[in-house]
Amino acid sequence: MRVPETERRRLRLRGAAASWVLLDKGNRDVLPGSFHVEPIRHDPPSYAYGAFSAAFMRVVLRTLVAALRSGQARIVTRER
Fold first, then answer.
1. Sign of the CA dihedral 4, 23, 77, 55?
2. In which region does residue 54 sit, left (phi positive, over 0), alpha (psi from -120 to 50) or beta (all else)?
3. Is residue 39 reached through a cis peptide bond, with omega within 30 degrees of 0 on the bond before it?
4. What pLDDT is stored for residue 76 in this prediction?
5. Shortest CA distance to 21 belongs to which of 47, 48, 59, 60?
6. Which of 29, 66, 65, 56 minimizes the C-alpha distance to 37?
């Protein structure tokens, strides 16, 4: 799902290329300590990049639930 430009600006995403939320797989992962997310600050560690709006997250979640129910997406557990 393409991230709308308003959401890109809210998160201060750089570059002109489109940003996407991939909804074919969902990770079960725990923060802090994830090997898949790098901190934006190390002392003290911070992982807060920002947040999508509630309206956009509702669309993402509805789309993900539909994909999970139809078998087009799955939840995976990443090994450490």
1. positive
2. alpha
3. no
4. 78
5. 60
6. 29
Q: 45 and 39 in contact (C-beta within 8 Å)?
A: yes
Tell the residue number behind the tokens 């557990």, with chain if given.
77
Decide: helix, strand or coil at residue 22: coil
pLDDT tens, position by position, 9-56: 888 888 888 999 888 877 776 666 666 666 677 788 776 667 889 999
Structure letter (DSSP) for residue 40: S
What domain count does the chain have?
A: 1
**Distance in angstroms (rounded) separating the CA atoms of residues 71 and 23:** 12
Name the residue range of residue 32's domain.
5-77
